[in-house]
Amino acid sequence: AQQRVHLVRHLVEQLPPRLRRVIVLCEFTDMSYEQVGEALGIPAGTVGSRRNKALQLLREAARKSKGGQAE
Question: What is the mean pLDDT of each run of 10 residues along the chain (71 residues)?
């Protein structure tokens, strides 16, 4: 479990800053898309789009780090 936490933290750190900010606020706080949007000065729809892109990149990076094995 500790290894997985380290991997996720590392992968999140590798995201572009605009995606990293959104994923951290959406996934590691109780903030809504509207609240995240207000905090970052972007529309809630953009928050959703950036969150989805960040999750896609994280999934791809996780697969690569596991040698192509999906969980």
Answer: 88 96 94 98 98 96 74 45
**Residue 65 parent element (H or E):** helix 44-65
Instruction: Check: CB of residue 57 under 8 Å from CB of residue 12.
Output: no
Closest-CA residue to 26 (of 47, 5, 56, 53): 47
Question: Which residue is it, tokens 């596991």?
Answer: 66
For residues 59 and 69, what is the distance between their CA atoms, to the nearest angstrom? 11
Give the number of other CB atoms < 10 A from CB of residue 55. Answer: 14
